[in-house]
Amino acid sequence: MTVSLQLQGSASIGETPVFSTLSIKIPGGAWTCLLGPSGVGKSTILRLFAGLNSGITFNGEITATDGQPISPRTVMMAQSDLLMPWLDVLGNVTLGARLRGDEPDWEQAYTLIQRIGLNGLERRKPNALSGGQRQRVALARTMLEDKPVVLLDEPFSALDACSRSAMQEISFELFVGRSVLLVTHDPAEAARLGDQILVLTEKGLQSVEPPPLPAIRPFDESRVLACQGKLLRLIRKDSG
Question: For residues 206 and 7, what is the distance between their CA atoms, to the nearest angstrom?
């Protein structure tokens, strides 16, 4: 069952406003890409959906269409891979279940490791992996949680262009049917992945029509490039 989400309200940290009143709808089973300049509250929105609101004063409401709590049904993947250096690939992929005291789904873990292209590297420690390989491990760990809502906080921004493109494609395949909110600074990423594209600046929230092609879109297709250019112009204009 897909889950649609909505956030409506304003947020501050201490006496400092983070964003004024806005309304964001996250459709079920689709990718929503939220982009904009630094400091406008994108990651705060992600944390609020995840229930990680420590230090944040939020005036408003966050709801799901089925009326059930949201945070237990979310999983979040950050920009840093957050791998445990003393655990191997398999140990990091199954970390969530082990921390909860549950028996990991070992078969599914091995299947995911194979799907992300790390078959045969299950016993390698993070220091023996490349940056792209480490992000793949973090992706498999996120997927193994099997949550209907996936929150991604610029998870590919530290990768080179080729690795980033590959990770976008793997993620799109693995998270099919999930309600995904991707926070990104990258207009090209949003143009490739977004079923819904939202631009947040100090002036507010604006929706931008995605290219009229099914995601994941070719990075060099003319309509994708045109959308990328429009997004960049919006961000530069509204951020001054």
Answer: 15
Residue 207: CB partners within 8 Å, gap ≥ 6?
A: 196, 197, 198, 199
- Write down the domain spans for the chain: 5-79+149-238
Name the one residue in this structure whose structure tokens are 């709801």: 63
CATH number for the segment(s) 5-79+149-238: 3.40.50.300
DSSP characters for 9-70? EEEEETTEEEEEEEEEEE-TTSEEEEE--TTSSHHHHHHHHHT--TT-EEEEEEEETT-S-S
Q: What is the pTM of this model?
A: 0.92
For the chain, 240 residues long, the average pLDDT of each consecutive 10-residue run is 90 89 94 91 91 88 91 88 94 91 91 90 94 90 92 86 87 92 94 96 91 93 96 78
